[in-house]
Structures are given as structure tokens and as C-alpha cells.
Amino acid sequence: MEATVTDLLSSLQRAGLLPSKVIPSDFTPSFLLNVRFPGADADTRHGALMRVSQVQSAPALSITTSNLSNSGAAPPPTTTTYTLMMIDPDAPTPNDPKFAYWRHWVVAHIPLPVGKDEAESRVLQLDEDGRVLTQYLAPGPKDESRPHRYLFLLFAEPEGGRKLEKVDVGGEEFVERRSFRADEFIERHGLRLVAVQWMLGAGDGWREE
């Protein structure tokens, strides 16, 4: 596999995210998912640590398929729309994740941008083209908590599937976002995982011992 794909899968395994309820053991990406928060100099990837103050605004997401066709990765899906999900498996703390998964952001029916070539990074126009089912809520781990793991998951939607609505994921209120059964949601709506990215999130005052 291409080094970036191998690094991603290895980082997920080391973090205890592969396999999991939302990432199957045989997962291979069809796309490389890139996440960049406003003001950041580089993409956030493979478990990079971000502080609360750095993630207050929703990030820009893009995909690339450069060299994936010859890397052993899964072929790009033939579907035309996608669902993005950002969830926290470590809520309220990694030591006591009784509120996992915490639902931070869900956008459905995102059309895949057309690129001129495989190497081009294609930005996902989430708010403009997708249907926002859960507005972005910035991570807020406490300073006394160990860093949380945050997953960005991109799914291919089934052709001819029912249009997803806000009621399918739940309310926007703070307490309504906790204990989201992401795995059940994925299975119920026939979503297929095609790309993953993840980061660590910590309070501004957290210091590693």
C-alpha cells in the first residue's frame, strides 16, 4: 500500500480503533480523507494532537485518490453521494466512555466533487451541497482528562436509498448527542465506509505527565 494508507491503518490499530464497532477489521480506504482546521498550517491526520482552542470552527475536508488504484486499497465506490460522521468514542473520558459515541457532526447526501486527475485534492462542500443532520459541535475535553480520540468517517450511501433526515440521528441539544449508536445507524441505512481520518483532542491546559 501507499505509505500514507499504511500509516493511517497502523495508527488506527495502535489507537485501538481498528477494528471497532464502526471500522471493520478488513477496512481498506477508497479515498484518503484530509482534515484541516481554520488557521492550521497543515492537515490534521493519523492521531495528531489538537487543543480545544484550535478546533472551535468546523474543519475543511477533502479527498484524494492519488495512486490508490495500485496500492491494494478498495476501488472507489460507484455511488454518487456520501455521509460524513464525526464521533467521539471516549466521552466523557477515555477511562469512563459511558456516553460513547458522542455525535459531533453529521452531514448526508454530499456529492463527490469531480477532479481533473487522481492527484488533485477535492474539497467536500459540506454546508453548501450536503444536508447537515447534526451541526458541528467543537470537541471540549476537560483539562484533567486524557486526550480523546475523534473519528472522521466518510460513507458511501446506497443508490436509491431513503433520504436521511435530522430525525434519523437525533436532536442537536448537548445531552441528545451522547450515546449515539453509530454502528446501528450505519447498518440500518446501508452505509459503506470508504475513508477515515482521526485526531486526538485535549484541553488547552492538559499536560502530559
From TrEMBL:
Pfam families recorded: PBP (PF01161)
Stored SUPFAM superfamilies: PEBP-like
Coiled-coil residues: none
GO MF entries: peptidase inhibitor activity; phospholipid binding
Transmembrane segments: none
Matches recorded under InterPro entries: PEBP, PEBP-like_sf, PEBP_euk
Gene Ontology biological process terms in this record: regulation of proteolysis; regulation of Ras protein signal transduction
Entry superkingdom: Eukaryota
The protein's name: Phosphatidylethanolamine-binding protein
